[in-house]
Design brief:
- By secondary structure, this protein is α+β, with helices and mostly antiparallel strands.
- It has 4 helices and 6 strands, in the order βαβαβββαβα.
- It has a 6-stranded mixed sheet.
- It binds a DNA duplex through loops.
DNA sequence: GCCAACGTTGGC
DNA sequence: GCCAACGTTGGC
């Protein structure tokens, strides 16, 4: 089993949006970065847990845990001209972009803030803490996972 | 809103 | 294949 971190701007899609979904499940759509896509396509397996991270907001940080409930398949928004994620280079034969389905497992009672992550020993290597890191899907080690859960 | 860091695009 | 220009991200 592998551990992950999924980043989203809460003004676009927050953990509360996910909580409001029927079945508390959503497809992680709109990823348009090859490295992030490859993590979803090649790395994320059914049952893998992932942190839900809020970025670009007043209090950036980890707000909960989701679980992969369906492995990678073509991102329908890439093929939909009406979608803001539409990619004219994507075709049904070569969909280019993928999504996974994730289900809300737990919303934390409080946000584990970015500042707190930075101040915690053992998390220095996390992708999210690297300067200029913009990947929306990144792997987390088991140790990092447990370290973060222990902060709660 | 600023701005640094980064990925992508496209001319050559 | 290089690299400048451009657009986007995301913390502050």
């Amino acid at each position: 089993m592998a551990f992950w971190l999924l980043k989203s701007e809460p003004s676009v899609y927050s953990i509360d949006h996910l909580a409001a979904e029927e079945k508390k499940t959503t497809l992680w759509e709109g990823v348009r970065n090859y490295q992030a896509r490859n993590f979803m396509r090649d790395g994320m397996k059914k049952g893998d847990p992932a942190f839900f991270y809020h970025s670009n907001c007043p209090e950036p940080g980890i707000v909960g845990v989701v679980k992969v409930v369906r492995e990678a398949y073509p991102d329908p928004t890439a093929l939909d001209p009406a979608s803001k994620y539409y990619d004219p280079k994507a075709t049904p034969d070569n969909p280019r972009w993928v999504v996974v389905d994730v289900k809300l497992e737990k919303k934390f009672k409080r946000t584990v803030t970015l500042a707190e992550l930075r101040a915690t020993k053992g998390l220095e290597k996390m992708a999210i803490l690297q300067k200029g890191s913009r990947l929306s899907v990144t792997p987390v080690t088991e140790k990092e996972w447990e370290t973060i859960l222990a902060l709660l």
